[in-house]
Amino acid sequence: MKRIVSLCLVVLAAFVVFGRATCKKAGPERVVPEQVMKIKDHVYYHNVGICYGDGYYYTINGGNDGWGLVNVYDEQGEFVDSWEVELDGRAIFWHPDDEILYVKEYGVNSYTVDPVDGEWDFDLTDVFAEENSSPAMSTDGEYYYELTYDGEVSVLESFFGEPEDFIQLTKWSEEHGYAHALAASDKYLFTWDEGGIVYVHDFGGNYVTRFELPRDGFGFSLSWCNGLLWIAEDADASDEGGNGYWYGYRLKGLR
């Protein structure tokens, strides 16, 4: 009887030990991008950035600083207003504390845009390392995240433009445009490639997962705002203007 009890205890102990050893923390489920928004965005040249704040979406175009536009849309994506800005944009951000817009131009400087009347002004010089980068802003507005060609992300103070940290990603594209685009949620950094594959990293630079978008988009356009990942089908227009389209995706399965 004692031998039977001892054998049972051994089996139970083995189950506990090996059971614990194989119970790893579950990663994110398969990510399914679900389109929930579409915005027609009439611009000159290219659709490069979108952000959201105080109930409105704001977009910026790029390609020529003589034809810069910030377009404003309501929560349903209906056109509200448009402001001319002499900026060749690469990204646009809403700062939740300042309640003001920031624009990263083609170059290394940042600018402000008043969300009431569209008045724009110089902000900081020599903030960024890459002229052509399309960086992200943290959801709390404290930091910029700028992706460079070698997959390194610079973490910069948004108010002073000073480097705080560096994050080395493990997966990124070297294709022009896609190599410069970065989006950031409160948990993840997103990069992508010309095939519409999005790579997800945590803020330690660790690869988390990947998924494919249902359409291709303009390389610089990858953005995150209002809880959605955005890309643009580019207008690829001239000084006569043309329509591009922004698509916002809810990422089902990404916790």
Written overview of the protein:
The chain has 255 residues and is mainly beta. It has a single domain, classed as 5 Propeller (Tachylectin-2, Chain A), CATH 2.115.10.20. Helices cover 8% and strands 45% of the residues. It is built from one helix and 20 strands. It has a four-stranded antiparallel sheet with strand order 1-20-19-18, with no helix packed on it. A four-stranded antiparallel sheet has the order 2-3-4-5, with no helix packed on it. β2 (46-53) and β3 (56-62) form a beta hairpin. The longest helix is centred in the first third of the chain and has 21 residues, at 2-22. It is globular, with a radius of gyration of 22 Å. The termini are far apart.
